[in-house]
Design goal:
Blueprint: E1 2-4, E2 8-13, H1 37-53, E3 58-63, H2 72-81, E4 86-90, H3 99-107, E5 110-116, H4 122-129, H5 134-145, E6 151-157, H6 166-176, E7 181-185, H7 194-200, H8 204-221, H9 226-236, H10 241-247, H11 255-262, H12 264-267, E8 278-279, E9 296-297, H13 298-304
Parallel strand pairs: 2-3, 3-4, 4-5, 5-6, 6-7
Antiparallel strand pairs: 1-2, 8-9
Helix pairs in contact: 1-2, 6-8, 7-13, 9-11
Length: 316
């Protein structure tokens, strides 16, 4: 799957993943159907060339785990030949415990890594990945990433099993990996099952005190570097705005938040899948953030109802 925009193009390599995350129901059994590897590689190379001809110089490569497939390095060769200046790899990070592999990726043009982290401790992180050794591999990889010039973005999804650790994770990242960007994001539903969703996501009222504590840790410790703040803020903006306002009433009035909200990539980021679409239930209609807020996921509303919202009257 590929997408293109004026300044950036993205490719998704749907390979298998060594993790078995609780929100990704079929991660280990995912297989690409249809195109043969040779024809797919040819099509993706052509896509990169066409994007470069249009002046695109940023490439993002994601999927379940791009490093597990046979196509990645051939695509990096083409991207480098076509003058792509910024290449981002979205990965679990586990294979980057190999410094040799990491250096090879950087030498072939990868300038940025986007990696998930779900807890400050093995017990919490692996409660999400359901894969022994995944936390050890990730920490080893992050230590390696400190030794290269590539930019690293770490993102945590707020879940039932890690909500109590969000502030500890924030402090840990800020202390051990201060040069890396970090953010905590809302969970985009991956199923229509309300039972499945409730089992992994706690609801916004349950999440609120933990998210607020993590936000306060970030505000207290993070140097005022625009890039670091932008990433944390953009992740936070994935939550309903009434929740953000309850965390910090000044947040949505900051120039950083306003700049992110004007960005087309941010506004167009929602999935076309019905269960990942947003809705605005009745209480949202009188909220002062109605026009700017993307709303909440339909599955979240169906699972927890109107009582999970923190709506603010326009004149309130």
């Amino acid at each position: 799957m590929t997408t293109a925009q004026a300044q950036k193009t993205a490719i998704s390599l749907e390979t298998t993943c060594e993790n078995d995350c609780i929100f990704c129901r079929d991660a280990r059994s995912l297989q690409r159907k249809g195109s043969s590897p040779a024809s797919l590689l040819a099509a993706l190379k052509d896509w990169i060339r066409q994007a470069a001809d249009r002046g695109v110089r940023e490439l993002e490569i994601g999927g379940s785990e791009p490093l597990n497939g046979p196509l990645l390095f051939a695509l990096l060769d083409v991207a480098k030949q076509q003058g792509m200046k910024d290449i981002t790899l979205i990965t679990t990070g586990r294979k980057l415990k190999s410094m040799r592999l990491l250096r090879r990726l950087c030498s072939q043009g990868v300038t940025c890594f986007r990696i998930p982290i779900y807890g400050s401790k093995k017990r919490i992180h692996e409660a999400v990945t359901r894969t022994p050794g995944s936390f050890r591999d990730l920490i080893h990889a992050l230590e390696n990433l400190k030794r290269v010039e590539a930019t690293t973005y770490l993102r945590c999804l707020a879940l039932r099993c890690n909500q109590g650790d969000l502030s500890n994770l924030t402090r840990t990242v800020l202390k051990k990996f201060p040069q890396m960007h970090f953010g905590i994001a809302d969970l985009k539903p991956t199923s229509e099952s309300l039972i499945f969703y409730r089992n992994i996501f706690p609801g916004y009222r349950s999440l609120f005190p933990h998210l607020k504590k993590a936000y306060q840790c970030f505000k207290a410790a993070r140097p005022l570097t625009p890039g670091f703040i932008d990433y944390f803020f953009s992740a936070l903006l994935s939550f309903p705005f009434c929740l953000i306002d309850r965390i910090d009433p000044r947040f949505l009035k900051t120039q950083t938040a306003k700049k992110i909200l004007r960005d087309k990539d941010f506004r167009d980021s929602d999935s076309s899948y019905s269960y990942a679409r947003r809705c605005r239930p009745a209480p949202c209609r009188g909220c002062r953030y109605r026009d700017a807020c993307p709303g909440l996921y339909t599955v979240s509303y169906l699972a927890y109802g109107e009582g999970d919202l923190f709506t603010h009257p326009k004149n309130g």
